[in-house]
Structure formats: C-alpha cells, structure tokens
Design goal:
Shape of chain A: globular
Low-confidence stretches of chain A: none
Number of helices of chain B: 24
CATH superfamily of the largest domain in chain A: P-loop containing nucleotide triphosphate hydrolases
Structural class of chain A: alpha+beta
Number of strands of chain A: 20
Strand content of chain B: under 5%
Distance between the termini of chain B: 16 Å
Shape of chain B: globular
Order of helices and strands of chain A: EEEHEEEHHHEHEHEEHHEEEEEEEEEE
CATH topology of the largest domain in chain A: Rossmann fold
Largest interface: A-B, 33 and 26 residues
Low-confidence stretches of chain B: 537-546
Strand order of the largest sheet of chain A: 6-7-8-3-9-10
Strand content of chain A: 35-45%
Oligomer: heterodimer
Largest sheet of chain A: 6 strands, mixed
Number of strands of chain B: 6
Distance between the termini of chain A: 48 Å
Largest sheet of chain B: 2 strands, antiparallel
CATH topology of chain B: MetI-like fold
Structural class of chain B: mainly alpha
Radius of gyration of chain A: 25 Å
CATH class of the largest domain in chain A: Alpha Beta
CATH class of chain B: Mainly Alpha
Helix content of chain B: over 70%
Number of domains of chain A: 2
Order of helices and strands of chain B: HEEHHHHHHHHHHHHHEEHHHEEHHHHHHH
Mean pLDDT of chain A: 91
Mean pLDDT of chain B: 85
CATH superfamily of chain B: MetI-like
Radius of gyration of chain B: 24 Å
C-alpha cells in the first residue's frame, strides 16, 4: 500500500454567500497526518470539526486552502474519486439492501471479478464478526451490528483515508467502549490513516495517536492524549478535557527554566517553565491542577487551607468541592474512599499536591 | 445536508431549467403579451373593455363569489370529516376514509352529470319525487353543491395531515390540567389547526375558480371567468379578450397560492409535535360522537347517491322520461368513444412516467443540491399547480402554434401539457419523502465511489419508491381526468375522453356521458389498484428512514 499521508494547508471554510450572513466554520486549519496515524478532531458542537472532516471527504469545498493525500493535491477531486471511506454518525446504511450488498457496495466501482468481490466481502465480514448476517436487512440488526456493517463497508474498499463522524454516539455506554477498542484494533492492524471526529474526550483519548482540539473553527492545540490532558496550552483546552481546577497565582522569580510562584500566600519554588508561558516574565498566571492530583488532608497538614462546601459519593471516589481561604473553589477527588477518613461539610481541611503536577498557563 | 453539484447534476439542472422555461414560463408570458396586444400594438384596451362592461366584469365577481363560498363550505366539511376520522374512535373508520376520498379520483364533471340527473329539469328528485318543474339547478346553487362535493377532499387531505400530527399528548395534557373536552378542542386542537384550515381554504379557492368543466355545463346564466375566457378564445376567436380574462383568473389564483406557500405554511405548528399519530381516546363526548357519526353517514350516502345515479344513468333509456333498462348507451359510447379512450390512455400513459421521473429528479435537486436559482426553479416548477388550466391551455395554444415550436394538433402538445401541469404533485411528494431520508445514506454511496447519477438511480429512487408511485398514480389520474387546459389542445386526431364526455353532456346525451364517466372511473381505479400492488410490501425499511 502506498503511503497515504493527509495534509491540510490553510483550510478555511466560510458558509453563506451574503456578507452579513457569513459564518466562518473553519479558520486556517493546518495539519500533517502520517501514514497509519489516527488523529481525532475534538471540540464542542459547532467548532468546525465535522465541516473539516466533510472537506477531507470532498462533501464540502474549502473556501481557501489545499488538501493533499500522499502529496497529491485532491482539493478539486469529487468525493466519489477520492478513495476515502466515511463511517457516518447515523451509519447511512442502505435500507433496501442486505448486509452483504451494503458491504460490497463500494466494490462495484472497482474492477473486480465476482469471485474476488465475494472473497473480500467474506474476509471483511469475518474480521468485524458479521459472518452469518449476510442476508439480513440493516433494519433487522442491533445498533452495534449496524455499526459493524458501516465499518466493514468502509474497510472493504481499502480506502487511503478512513473518516469517522462521531460513529459511536448512537450506542449505549458499554457497547461504545467495546466498539471503541475494536475500531482501534482494526485500524492499527490494517494501518489505515484515519481521522476521527468526536465531542467525547474519553473516546478521543483512548483512540488517538494525536488529538486536535478545536474551538470556533480554530485549532487550539494538537498533541498526543497525555500532552493534551496534562499540558494543555490554555484554559479552554484544560477545561474541555476532563475536570480541572484553575487557581490564580503570581510569578515571584524566574531562574532560566524554573520559576517561583505564590498561591494564596504560600510560596512554591522551582516549578518547570513550559512553552506556553515562557514569554511571561512577571504578574499573574493560572495554575492548572487536576482533581485527582490533589490530596485532601486534616487541617494544618497540607499546603493550602480550605473548607468543605459540597461532596458527592461517586463509587470509586468521593468528589469534594472546597472553598479556599481566598474564595477559590477547588475540586478534589479522594480515591478508594472506603478506608479513608471522610470529611464532613463545613469541616476545615487542607490540600496538598506535588509541585510536578502543577501546570502553568497564561491568565 | 446540501451538497455541491458535479457535471451531470449541472447538466440536469440546465436541461430542467430550459424545459420549465419553455413549457411553463413561456406560455404564461405569451398569454400576458397577447392580452396586452390589440391590433399588433401594446394596449390596455381589453382590460378597460372588460371592466367597463358589466356582463364581463360580472364574470370576475362570480368567480370570486363561487370560490369564496366553495372554499368555506369545503373547508368546514373537510375539517369535520378529518376530525371525525382522525381524532375520534368511530366504527368503520377504514371504510369511511376510503369513501370520503372517492370524489378526488372522479372526472370533475361526473358530479355535474349526477346532479342534472337528480335535480335537473327531468331530475329524479325535483320532477319525479317532488313534482317541481320551475326549479333550475343551473347556476350558483348547483355549482356550490357539485364543487363542494368534488373539492372538500382537498381540504380533508390537508387537514388530515395537520390533525394527525397534533399529538394526543397535547390534548391529554390539556385534559389533565383540568380542561373539559369542549374546552380542550377550543383552546388546543382548533388553534393548532388554524394554519391548516387557512391552507385548505386557499387550495380549494384556487381549485374552485380554476374549475372549468362544472361551470361549463352547470353555470347557466352564472358566468364565470374560466368559461367566458374559453368562449371568447375558441368561440369568438377573440384571442386578446380571452387572454385578458385568463389573466384576471391567474392573479387571484397566484395570490392565493403565494399566500399559502410562503406565508401560511411558515406558520404551521405541525413540525413541533412530529410524527402522525392516531387518536388513543375520544376527545369528544358520546353525544357529539353520535352527531359526527350521523354526519359521516350522511356525507357518504350523498357520495354513494351521486355515484349510483351515474351508474343507473348508464342503463336507463331516457332519464326522467323512459326508465326502461337498455344497453343502448354502451353501444353508442363504444361507437363514439373507443378512439378517444385509446387516445386518452396513450396520452396519459405516456405522460405519467415522464411526470413521475421528472418530479422525483426536481425534488431531489431541491432537497439535496444547492445551486444558483434554486428557489426560482422550485417556484416555477410548482407554478403550474397554481396556474388555472384555462390560462395554461390558452398559453399552449398561443405559444406552440408558431415557430419555433409548432405543436398544435399533435399528441406531443397534450402530453407535454400533462407532464408540466402534473409534475408539481410528484415534486411535492418527492420532497416530503426525501426529507425523511438520512442524507448520510446518499453520501455514503458517493463516498464509496458512486457517481451522482448512479447514487440517484440505485439508492435515492428505490428509497422514495412509495412517493414515486403515488406521484405516478396521481399524475395518471389527473392525466385521465384533466379538462380545463386539455379542452384547448384536443384535435380531430387526438381527442381526450373528458372532452368527449363534456361534449356529450352539453348536447344532453347524459346516458352516454354517464357510461363514459364510468369507463373513466374504472380505468383510473384499476391503475390505482395496480400501482398500489406494486408499492405494496415496501414497509419493511420504512422504519429505517425515519
């Protein structure tokens, strides 16, 4: 198989022809996707992720910019000649065809003998676990099975690029997890360059080689899941992915790649300077701290004083919402709570954390 | 979601735009031009003449009066019928639902033949039963009766759609909050039906003023625009005056159509409550239920009476004078009618598949593609629905009687007329059913490598098959029963059955007219039945499409 990288260069999409009705759905989008890589476009609804995907498939034409598959400019190639395959949110199965006819549909447009078509269809149905369902109609299948048909139909044509448009959002939670793992397994096994759109951050993290976080048509950050989670570039990304505390702080002193900061009166020394704040030399900054990185302790044992204002029992952990001395709300997760001291509402507590867990962003 | 057009799509759009320009827009343009041309130069004198002469001015008022009355009576009957059959649990609902739609598939003047047989000078009711001889059914009274009976199904159909989409949950909620059944009707059901009522009223109004066949036979001294335009145009050969009268008919019809399309339908609430649902419980008291049942029985009895009269009319030697049974009318009809029946089948049969296919293609373009001039295309393709047949008939005569399009006297002119007049029915049902189909299904096909033409024929068309066949059925019915435009276009070589029936009715050969009407109804019903069989068991994937 030839290398099928995908590059988007300055892709911009503006909807609406009249000036006053124009909406910029995607704004100057740039990315290079490697052969076999799975990249997720993640963001709230209306952020332009689906539009970007549809431009890659060819259903929308970019207002500006170019799209390359394996170095070849495909911006003006119609969708049926692009050799992409999309798995749609609603699956888009042909209701008047059997499972087998659905899956082999894309092979009609390839030069193949009937025997070859049958062989390929059979292989792919085995691969996704649909053997035995050949003669059924899509309407007679469960949601998960329909999803497999959609996946098989896309895989069988051996597309250069596999596109997923929130394919799991119509499944229940358990099934979603299974399908997620299966998609990832198949995609790795077949090494197909894939672009996956979702608004579900867990899905994005579990599936992706890299995540592109989008907002208002713009890319906020591109990075691997860990980077996106622990080293978000700004408050939007931090807040969109998982729960997070933003605690205001102040820069006291900078020594090359370390800085001393002050949070609510206590000084924390030698925190690593990251690339997002390296230009800031003084003044206020925001400290990103995940709830699971914080310990809740008895009064006068930790770094900062606080008071419990709410708590919620969530099975594997208790989530406390605290109010600090300077009126900042701080969420703390206490894991495996069974044999730990449980704190009461209104109780005075302190919190503690490792300074390596602090991530600094611009205020 | 709408997608960009590729080469084939662009070419199709271009061809359709050209066809619509030639066969919808151009004839209308010719009517306007001719109405404004006197002795070869521009002049308003025809319009001035029409308004200065009270007998001509009167035709306009008469058309409007008739339209307003019939629209009102039809809407009332249509609403009561729809309400009884979709909001109340009455016995034999399925049976009633079939019968009340019957008038929509009959030739338009069949009811007129009936009413003449029943209440005319030798009428069964008037002369034979009551002994009245000085009563005349010819005029406004008769027209109101036959038009209402023939056109309430239009209102009924619109209102059925509206009422069945008002979720019973809303009414139950209102009951639950303490309203009694009468109050719930006044405060919930009726207000939610108002846009539907307005729509129904306007559609019947347009149909009533455009009606040609009934007033042609039954109007007596009550002159209406459609008939007078025909008389002036073909009888007096006064092209300008005929055209001017047609334009005066066109304006109110277009106005009503535009109000319906762009104002009333926007006010509709039905989208809020979603899918059609039947009544789960009665929303009326048992006393009202009895009244509604009585109403339905009365209505269906009248329909049966009218049909039965035509059947009997075919067998009696001379209605009102000699009630002995005979097959004479059948023999006579065979002699005069066989050619026309063949012609009509060829004409309607040829037009139907084109109408259906063109309708689906246009519906597809409107729903799924975005292109320049789309709204214009949509408007002009639905336009021929609003334009009265008289206007379009005159337009075709004027437009296709000279170079570059000489079509007068050919089968082509009638077929083209049928195609472009009936296309909107197919478009409407195609649009409605395409909106139900997930666009991802078509996109998936394209994405997997299919061209847009392949996707349309292998994916889209099979999925909208029910709409396609119902479009076919209706265009066939309308093709078989069309009069108002066709009457201008028939020739010695190509006659249409409706034109023949009309001629027979005018010379008071009511026996033959009855026979020919029956033949027409039987043909239409058989085709309806066959097409219904074809669509038949496609329900299995209907669930997927919602």
């Amino acid at each position: 198989m030839e290398a099928s990288t995908v590059s988007l260069e300055n892709i911009t999409k503006i909807f609406g022809s009249k000036r006053e009705e124009q909406v910029t759905a995607v704004d100057d989008f740039n990315i290079n996707i490697n052969q076999g890589e799975l990249v997720t476009l993640l963001g709230p609804s209306g952020c332009g992720k689906t539009t970007t995907l549809r431009m890659i498939a060819g259903f929308e034409t970019p207002t500006n910019g170019k799209i390359y598959f394996g170095g070849e400019n495909v911006s003006n190639v119609p969708p049926n000649k692009r050799n992409t395959a999309m798995v749609f949110q609603s699956y888009g199965l042909f209701p008047h065809m059997t499972v087998k006819e659905n899956i082999s549909y894309g092979l009609r447009f390839k030069e193949m003998t009937k025997a070859e078509v049958n062989k390929k269809t059979k292989q792919i149905m085995e691969l996704v676990g649909l053997t035995g369902f050949e003669g059924r109609n899509p309407g007679e299948l469960s949601g998960g099975q329909q999803q497999r048909v959609a996946l098989a139909r896309s895989l069988v044509i051996e597309p250069k690029v596999l596109l997923f448009d929130e394919p799991l959002s119509n499944l229940d939670a358990k099934l979603r997890e299974n399908m997620r793992n299966e998609i990832r397994k198949l995609q790795k096994k077949l090494s197909i360059t894939s672009i996956y759109v979702t608004h579900d951050q867990i899905e994005a993290m579990s599936l992706s080689d890299r995540i592109v976080v989008m907002n208002n048509g713009k890319i906020e950050q591109i990075g691997d899941p860990e980077e996106i989670y622990y080293r978000p570039c700004n408050a939007f990304v931090a807040d969109f992915i998982g729960k997070v505390n933003f605690i205001p702080g102040e820069i006291l002193e900078i020594n090359e790649d370390k800085m001393d900061i002050q949070i609510e009166g206590s000084v924390i020394k030698d925190i690593a300077v990251n690339k997002y704040i390296k230009d800031q030399k003084e003044g206020e900054i925001s400290i990103v701290l995940r709830p699971e990185s914080i310990d809740i302790c008895e009064a006068d044992q930790g770094r900062l004083e606080a008071k419990v204002i709410r708590k919620e029992y969530l099975g594997s952990y208790i989530e406390y919402v605290l109010k600090s001395k300077e009126e900042n709300e701080i969420t703390v997760n206490q894991f495996n709570p069974l044999n730990k001291r449980e704190f009461e509402i209104e109780e005075k507590v302190t919190i503690d954390f490792e300074k390596e867990d602090l991530h600094l962003i611009n205020k | 979601m709408e997608s960009k057009s590729d080469g084939i799509t662009k070419f199709t759009i271009f061809i359709i735009a050209v066809l619509i320009s030639i066969f919808v827009i151009y004839p209308l343009y010719k009517v306007i031009v001719v109405s404004l041309t006197v002795d070869g130069s521009f002049s308003l004198s025809e319009y001035i003449y029409i308004f200065s002469k009270s007998w001509l001015r009167g035709t306009f008022y008469n058309s409007m009066i008739l339209g307003v009355i019939v629209a009102t009576t039809s809407t009332i009957i249509g609403f009561i019928t729809a309400y009884s059959l979709y909001k109340v649990q009455l016995p034999m609902r399925g049976f009633f639902r079939q019968i009340v739609m019957l008038p929509i598939i009959s030739p338009p003047f069949m009811l007129t033949i009936s009413i003449i047989l029943l209440m005319g000078r030798n009428g069964l009711i008037t002369k034979q039963l009551l002994g009245i001889t000085n009563y005349s059914i010819y005029g406004l009274d008769g027209l109101i009766i036959v038009q209402t009976l023939g056109m309430y199904p239009i209102a009924y159909r619109v209102l059925t759609g509206v009422l069945s989409r008002i979720s019973p949950e809303l009414e139950n909620a209102a009951l639950n909050l303490g309203g009694d059944k009468g109050y719930v009707f006044r405060s919930v059901t009726l207000p939610l039906s108002i846009p539907g009522l307005a729509s129904a009223w306007l559609l019947v109004f347009v149909t009533s003023i455009a009606d040609f066949a009934n007033p042609m036979v039954l109007a007596g001294n009550f002159d209406v625009l459609s008939v007078q335009a025909y008389m002036q145009f073909t009888g007096m050969y006064n092209l300008s005056r005929g055209s001017a009268l047609a334009i005066m008919l066109l304006f109110p019809a277009l106005l009503a159509f535009v109000i319906e399309k762009y104002w009333v339908s926007k006010k509709s609430y039905i989208t809020v409550t979603g899918k059609p649902t039947g009544a789960k419980q009665d929303m009326v008291s048992s006393k009202v239920k009895k009244i509604l049942m009585g109403f339905l029985i009365a209505l269906t009895s009248v329909i049966f009476l009218f049909y039965f009269t035509v059947i009997m009319g075919s067998f009696f030697t001379l209605w009102g004078v000699d009630f002995s049974l005979t097959l004479e009318h059948f023999k006579y009809s065979w002699d005069v009618g066989l050619e026309s029946i063949k012609d009509t089948l060829i004409l309607a049969g040829t037009a139907t598949p084109f109408t259906g296919l063109l309708g689906m293609i246009i519906a597809f373009l409107i729903v799924r593609k975005s292109f320049w001039g789309k709204n214009l295309l949509q408007f002009s393709s639905l336009l021929s629905f609003a334009v009265p047949g008289t206007v379009i008939g005159i337009g075709y005569v004027l437009a296709f009687n000279e170079k570059p399009f000489i079509l007068t006297g050919t089968a082509a002119i009638i077929i083209l007329n049928l195609i472009f007049r009936n296309m909107p029915v197919g478009i409407e049902s195609g649009v409605a059913s395409l909106r139900q189909i997930d666009p991802a299904i078509e996109e998936a096909s394209t994405d997997l490598g299919a061209s847009s033409a392949y996707t349309f024929s292998k994916i889209t068309l099979p999925l909208i098959k029910p709409a396609f066949f119902s479009g076919l059925s209706y265009s066939f019915v309308r093709g078989m029963t069309a009069v108002s435009a066709i009457i201008f276009l028939v020739s010695a070589r190509w006659n249409h059955l409706t034109a023949l029936i009309l001629a027979q009715t005018e010379i008071m050969r009511l026996g033959a007219a009855s026979v020919l009407s029956l033949v027409l109804i039987i043909i239409v019903m058989s085709v309806f039945y066959l097409l219904g069989k074809l669509v038949g068991d496609d329900e299995e994937f209907a669930g997927m499409m919602n």
